[in-house]
Design goal:
The complex is a heterodimer of chains A (about 375) and B (about 300). By secondary structure, chain A is of the alpha/beta class. Chain A has 15 helices and 9 strands. In chain A, strand 1, helix 2 and strand 2 form a beta-alpha-beta unit. In chain A, helix 1 runs parallel beside helix 2, helix 2 packs antiparallel against helix 13 and helix 9 crosses helix 15. The longest helix of chain A has 21 residues. The N terminus of chain A is likely disordered. Chain B is an all-alpha fold and about 300 residues long. Chain B has a single domain, classed as MetI-like fold (Orthogonal Bundle), CATH 1.10.3720. Chain B starts with a helix and ends with a helix. The mean pLDDT of chain B is about 85. The chains are: A alpha/beta (about 375), B mainly alpha (about 300). Chains A and B meet through helix 15 of A and helix 3, helix 11 and helix 12 of B.
Chain lengths: ~375, ~300
């Protein structure tokens, strides 16, 4: 848990707004005569995502399209998403326009809003660069929302101590048993990297597709028993006799201090830590077969937005090499567009990790996985 | 102006002043009273009613949510864990703070003055920072384990991410508060009584047993109850320093609300926590009202 720092975020927003305003004022250009349009972006995420928008996307976009001003509203760790959904729904039902022009949020809200007609359906006609995005990725969200970056959970290992990197989930399990105390995953209540390891154990014995779709039936959870048993049996071989720290970062810190030699970590966070020198030089990341879970981060365009034209320009720009390179360089994310449109050097850097990813369980199953993990794995010790 | 109206005005003036004072008093209490009623009392009542009527289509109250939660072994162990950790934390805090408060009350000179400032430092350190500091200090490869390792102790019990870690951090964080409250109670004891006891030949132990302790029961009870409620309801420390299971109720409730997406269970747990706190709170109210009535 990291406390949000609204004052600093606010100051940063203000500074960037000022910078954008000044940049706009200094360049009259052909668009200078027009009234600039202000786009309001509501972005939920962690500080790395805020930096990506505030220090990467927004300055570059405003430079290229001076006729648009961008107002950035950061929702730290998704705080406030609930209120925004209610606001959009209320505006829709009252038949009013909304000041939310673009929203980056959790998939759950997007799914909820589809039957309400809250979102604009995207198409390559409105956003030409959408043609570069893999079709199945767009279909997964029924063309509501633009997948502009992705990441997945991978296995991070210290090559100084792990000579043969694991290729499958069973390899990982065998390594853990052979090297007690040198592996852990975070409490799945506190981070996706922990959820990935837990779901991998469950998916080991069931068909993932059954739990990632919309239907939900508590009775289907009986099939998870074998997965729970495997996790329970692994507990004594985990770090500190079965301790799972809080949060993705805490696990990276254990890897950094060489308290553990292997863990499940987010690809983007792991690569980012590594690039900054916060992990040992011998750290490596690899995706196993079948892959661990991951997701595409999407931005969604509310149908009631007053500036749809401007927002579509921004969406199209997000899928250009200029913006996609920022995704890779600033947050070590996977590009939203197909890998084949990326430079060879980028493909080389990601070749061990970019192998697709398993689907997230639907939100209800995920909530039950977290609760049952607590009950059947850690409390049963 | 006739004599009659003058007399009437003269009679009305004090009455009007009294009414004005009453209105002013009411106006001053009204804001906190409104906050209490609308943000605490009413939501609490609706929350309790909600937990007793889990299915709005069925009329009448049912304790289903309570029996269902209490039937779960893990919830029961979380409740027991919370109470035990709280009691141990309060006991250790009290054992450390009472002698310190006594020392600060009766010792003279520069050292007590310096100590009085030093022990308040944790009051100004946010619990988040204190918790991370404790982790760095207590974790394996941390300061404490390194010292013991150098001294030749190889096997060392884990001090953090378990109940020990929570107790140590809670004690660290509540010590200044306990010393301040206990100290205030000790300050209230009339110095003349102690001097008098000494004059008739009572030693320090006798003075403590016959004068200080009896006069200090109520402030001590108040300090203990406030400490209990404070530790019992804490979230940050058990979240950061505690283990995966069992967990303290603050963490369990948050998990039910934000992770397991089970709002009514979270509220039910909150009501149970409220009941336990209310029992302890009753001791506080009785102690305070005893003092109000002048029984000290």
């Amino acid at each position: 848990m990291r406390p949000a720092r609204p004052v600093r975020v606010g100051a940063a927003v203000l500074a960037i707004l000022l910078a954008v305003l000044l940049a706009g004022a200094g360049r009259p250009g052909p668009a200078g005569a027009q009234q600039p349009v202000t786009l309001n972006l509501y972005i939920s995420g962690d500080t790395n995502i805020f930096d990506l928008w505030q220090k990467g996307f927004i300055p570059a976009f405003s430079k290229r399209y001076p006729q648009y001003r961008v107002n950035f509203v950061g929702l730290m760790h998704g705080n406030g998403n609930d209120g925004i959904y209610d606001k959009l729904l209320a505006a829709k039902r009252a038949g009013r326009r909304t000041d939310v022009d673009l929203w980056e949020t959790e998939p759950g809200y997007v799914t909820q809003g589809i039957p309400e007609g809250l979102w604009l359906k995207l198409s390559p006609r409105a956003v030409p660069n959408l043609a570069k995005v893999p079709k199945d990725v767009l279909e997964a969200a029924e063309y509501y929302g633009l997948p502009y970056r992705g990441s997945s959970v991978v296995i991070g290992y210290n090559s100084q101590f792990v000579k043969t990197p694991p290729k499958t989930f069973d390899d990982v399990v065998a390594w853990i048993k052979a090297n007690p105390g040198k592996f852990t995953y975070c409490d799945p209540n506190t981070g996706g990297s922990g959820q990935a390891f837990v779901t991998a154990a469950i998916y080991r014995y069931v068909d993932p597709a059954r739990y990632s779709g919309k239907p939900y039936d508590v009775k289907d959870e009986a099939a998870w028993e074998q997965g729970w048993k495997m996790l329970r049996d692994l507990q004594p071989a985990m770090y500190n006799n079965g301790f799972h720290p809080n949060g993705n970062v805490a696990v990276l810190q254990l890897l950094a201090q060489q308290n553990i030699y292997m863990a499940s970590v987010w690809s983007d966070m792991g690569l980012d830590f590594y690039t900054r020198g916060q992990l040992p030089k011998s750290m490596r990341f690899t995706q196993i077969t079948p892959p661990l879970i991951g997701d595409d981060a999407r931005v969604t365009l509310p149908a009631g937005s007053a500036h749809i034209g401007g927002t579509l320009v921004l969406l199209n720009w997000l899928l250009t090499p200029e913006a996609q390179n920022m995704v890779i360089n600033m947050v070590a994310g996977y590009p939203g567009i197909d890998w084949k449109y990326m430079p060879a050097s980028v493909r080389e850097k990601f070749k061990d990790v970019a192998k697709g990813f398993a689907p997230y369980p639907n939100p209800k199953y995920l909530a039950d996985i977290k609760r049952l993990w607590h009950e059947k794995v850690v409390a049963a010790q | 102006m006739s004599a009659v109206t003058v007399r009437a005005a003269a009679r009305g003036a004090p009455a009007r002043r009294a009414w004005k004072e009453g209105a002013l008093g009411l106006a001053l209490v009204l804001p906190p009273l409104m906050v209490l009623v609308f943000l605490i009392v009413l939501p609490a009542i609706t929350a309790i009613l909600d937990t007793l009527t889990p299915d709005p289509t069925v009329r009448g109250f049912t304790p289903a949510l309570y029996t269902q939660l209490l039937a779960s072994r893990i919830v029961r162990s979380d409740i027991v864990f919370t109470v035990v950790v709280t009691l141990v934390s309060v006991a250790v805090t009290f054992a450390l703070s009472y002698p310190l408060a006594l020392y600060l009350r009766f010792a003279r000179g520069r050292l007590p003055a310096v100590l009085a400032v030093l022990f308040t430092i944790p009051l100004f350190v946010p619990v988040v920072i204190a918790s991370f500091a404790m982790i760095t200090f207590l974790v394996n490869h941390g300061v404490i384990s390194t010292i013991f390792y150098r001294l030749g102790v190889q096997r060392f019990p884990p001090l953090v991410y378990n109940a020990t870690g929570i107790v140590l951090t809670e004690v660290w964080a509540s010590l200044p508060f306990a010393v301040l409250i206990l100290g205030a109670g000790l300050q209230a004891i009339d110095g003349a009584l102690i001097d008098g006891a000494r004059d008739v030949g009572a030693g320090p132990l006798r003075t403590f047993g016959s004068i200080i302790l009896p006069l200090n029961v109520t402030p001590t009870m108040i300090a203990l109850t406030l400490l209990f409620i404070n530790v019992f309801g804490s979230f940050t420390i058990p979240y950061l320093v505690g283990g995966n299971a069992p967990q303290m109720l603050g963490v369990t409730m948050t998990n039910y609300l934000t992770q397991y997406l089970r709002r009514s269970e979270a509220v039910t747990l909150a009501v149970m926590a409220f009941v336990i706190s209310a029992v302890v709170g009753a001791v506080y109210v009785v102690s305070v009202s005893r003092r109000e009535r002048g029984a000290v």
